[in-house]
Design goal:
With 172 residues, this protein is mainly α. Helix content is 88%, strand content 0%.
């Protein structure tokens, strides 16, 4: 469509629209849009788009490969590390705890047997229980655990105090 013809079609559409003839205005507007010239894209446009988006395609393929192989591989590595540490760290600790528990039960059984054969009084029972409790608490692991629990309690008390102070300020 030439420029003058296009201008004439635009004038007809505007006149129909201003006159309130909606159906005619819509038809003229549709004819105007169909008749307008559409510029052809440059011959090298497709090649430029492919060149510009090659990293995006490479990245999406890499993400697909990472999802397909990377996540299972990471799961296998984490599982192997967990198995290794459980065998080298946890298993010996469990075995040691089991041996300590069995030794403690044997000593307790022997002590109870001797106590009943020789006669037992309340003070000797309490003294032996206190000695066993002191031995259990005197280990570095239990001492560290008690200190950590106390620090967590102090921190919780401090945070509760701050929250209540802030709530008091808000309510005033």
């Amino acid at each position: 469509m030439m420029e003058s013809e296009w201008q004439g079609a635009a004038d007809r559409w505007l006149a129909a629209d201003q006159a309130g003839r909606d159906l005619e205005a819509e038809a003229e507007f549709g004819a105007l849009l169909r008749a307008r010239a559409t510029p052809a894209p440059a011959a090298t446009l497709e090649a430029r788009i492919w060149r510009a988006t090659r990293w995006v395609r490479f990245r999406s393929k890499a993400l697909i490969l990472a999802r397909r192989f990377g996540i299972p591989a990471a799961t296998v590595v984490a599982g192997a590390a967990g198995l290794y540490y459980s065998v080298t760290l946890v298993l010996p600790m469990v075995a040691q705890a089991l041996v300590r528990g069995i030794a403690w039960l044997v000593r307790g059984f022997v002590w109870i047997t001797l106590a009943f054969t020789e006669g037992i009084d309340t003070w000797s029972l309490l003294a032996q229980l206190g000695r066993a409790l002191g031995d259990a608490i005197a280990t570095p692991e239990v001492t560290a655990a008690l200190i950590i629990i106390q620090l967590i309690g102090v921190l919780a008390f401090h945070l509760l105090n701050r929250v209540l102070a802030r709530e008091k300020e808000i309510s005033q």
